């Protein structure tokens, strides 16, 4: 399948969406499970490719671990294999080999891991050559590039002979993901202390306790449904999202508050959350430091609703599955909006363009699941074509099946695509 064409709903928007479960929670639980010799009973593990890759690589005895395009899988497994003394080559897609890992490698070397770069210094592929615990258990690490390095180190820390003290330097991005790591570690009996004022996290040397653990639905995946509801023209629209909790470990549950300004009300119940239409603001400013994966969803939704959106805290978007700032700048134009940098590298604004949008707009997805999913809700208002729809498998393989509950989803082969352009 080369593309999908999405067409607006022909009747009322009413759907119950099962959602995928969280790949972030799943991948943490899997590392902790591996550190208990697989004695935890993990329930509701994600079907996301990133999680399926983690499961496969944890079981594999191959000397090469190819993580494909999964950032957490690369970072968490590098720390796990390195400190458990497994000799592995860590590699991934060409884009993965452009995503930095030097900060994690430096920290692991300080703790006693022998790691060499096979190609470019600071980037995968890596060769893990073994582990001899160093005398120190203190590591200083930057917090402003990726929280995944910090989560990776924290999870293996209970296994280190002296535990670990992490001193975080600079700004801390994606902090809720670090908190998610700490909460899951505590659940499995780890002794962890975080002092956010002093920017220090201490983990005692102490084995995890194996226990059953159920993974929540994915709030990042839920964000696309908030955007669907926000863009539905039917004032009676209602969407039920299953398996979400009001009090979540996932920082992307911030979508509840963000989308209140974009006209979505959330009502939690025993099975999840019900979304209904509310009032929309004319402007919105949001700092995405804690929830970078929501930026694309909110940018597209604001663009379609004509809400002037100011985004800050989006520095890390340039080193994700693609340069998400550049990708948004190119693709928002096609739906009649622009993403303007108003303070170099720091502040951006989504504004309306006077030029008419493409009809139907054909959205390139840049090997990025979130580009495909963030632009799909546009279909509530106009036809849209999404290129390479298979990209969604990274986090939400059933996304198109779920989407077909509210809009018409048709597959386009190469020849049909030519005809529709
Ligand atoms: O720890 C995690 O599960 C994640 C952390 C975030 O990455 P950064 O810490 O690199 O921002 C997020 O973007 C990613 O999708 C998942
Ligand atoms: C950035 C993401 O994932 P990762 O960094 O784990 O590849 C994402 O899912 O949006």
Automatic annotation (TrEMBL):
UniProt-annotated binding residues for phosphoenolpyruvate: 23, 71, 99, 148, 324, 370, 394
EC code(s) of this entry: 2.5.1.19
Record's subcellular location: Cytoplasm
GO cellular component: cytoplasm
Disulfide bond among keywords: no
Gene3D superfamilies linked: Enolpyruvate transferase domain (3.65.10.10)
A Pfam family per the record: EPSP_synthase
Highest taxon of the lineage: Bacteria
Pathway participation: Metabolic intermediate biosynthesis; chorismate biosynthesis; chorismate from D-erythrose 4-phosphate and phosphoenolpyruvate: step 6/7
InterPro entries in the record: Enolpyruvate_Tfrase_dom (IPR001986), Enolpyruvate_Tfrase_sf (IPR036968), EPSP_synthase (IPR006264), EPSP_synthase_CS (IPR023193), RNA3'P_cycl/enolpyr_Trfase_a/b (IPR013792)
Subunit structure: Monomer.
Family of this protein: Belongs to the EPSP synthase family.
Protein name: 3-phosphoshikimate 1-carboxyvinyltransferase
Organism whose genome encodes this protein: Spirosoma taeanense
Taxonomic path: Bacteria, Pseudomonadati, Bacteroidota, Cytophagia, Cytophagales
Gene name tied to this protein: aroA
């Amino acid at each position: 399948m080369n593309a999908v064409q999405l067409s607006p709903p022909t009747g009322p928007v009413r759907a119950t969406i099962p959602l995928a479960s969280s790949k972030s929670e799943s991948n943490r639980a899997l590392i902790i499970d591996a550190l208990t010799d697989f004695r935890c009973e993990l329930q509701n593990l994600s079907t996301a490719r990133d999680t399926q890759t983690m499961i496969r690589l944890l079981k594999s005895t191959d000397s090469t671990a190819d993580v494909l395009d999964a950032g957490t899988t690369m970072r968490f497994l590098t720390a796990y294999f390195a400190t458990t003394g497994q000799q592995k080559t860590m590699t991934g897609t060409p884009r993965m080999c452009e995503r930095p890992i030097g900060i994690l490698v430096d920290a692991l070397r300080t703790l006693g891991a022998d790691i060499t770069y096979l190609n470019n210094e600071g980037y995968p592929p890596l060769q893990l050559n073994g582990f001899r615990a160093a005398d120190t258990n203190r590591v200083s690490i930057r917090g402003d590039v990726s929280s995944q390095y910090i989560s990776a180190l924290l999870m293996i820390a209970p296994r280190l002979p002296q535990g670990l003290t992490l001193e975080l330097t600079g700004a801390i991005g994606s902090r809720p993901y670090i908190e998610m790591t700490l909460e899951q570690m505590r659940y499995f009996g780890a002794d962890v202390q975080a002092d956010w004022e002093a920017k220090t996290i201490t983990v005692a040397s102490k084995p995890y306790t194996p226990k059953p653990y159920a993974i929540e639905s994915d709030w990042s995946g839920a964000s696309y449904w908030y955007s669907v509801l926000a863009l539905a023209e039917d004032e009676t629209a209602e969407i039920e999202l299953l398996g979400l909790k009001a009090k979540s470990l996932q920082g992307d549950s911030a979508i509840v508050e963000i989308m209140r300004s974009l006209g979505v009300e959330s009502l939690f119940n025993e099975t999840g959350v019900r979304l209904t239409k509310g009032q929309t603001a004319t402007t919105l400013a949001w700092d995405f430091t804690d929830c970078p994966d929501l930026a694309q969803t909110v940018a597209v939704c604001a663009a379609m609703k004509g809400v002037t959106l100011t985004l800050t805290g989006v520095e890390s978007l340039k080193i994700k599955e693609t340069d998400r700032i550049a990708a948004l700048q190119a693709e928002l134009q096609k739906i009649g909006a622009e993403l303007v940098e108003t303070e170099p590298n720091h502040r951006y604004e989504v504004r309306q363009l006077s030029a008419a949008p493409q009809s139907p707009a054909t959205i390139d997805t840049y090997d990025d699941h979130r580009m495909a999913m963030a632009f799909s809700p546009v279909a509530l208002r106009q036809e849209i074509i999404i290129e390479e729809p298979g990209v969604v498998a990274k986090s939400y393989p059933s996304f198109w099946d779920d989407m077909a509950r509210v809009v018409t989803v048709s597959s386009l082969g190469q020849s049909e695509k030519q005809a529709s352009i």
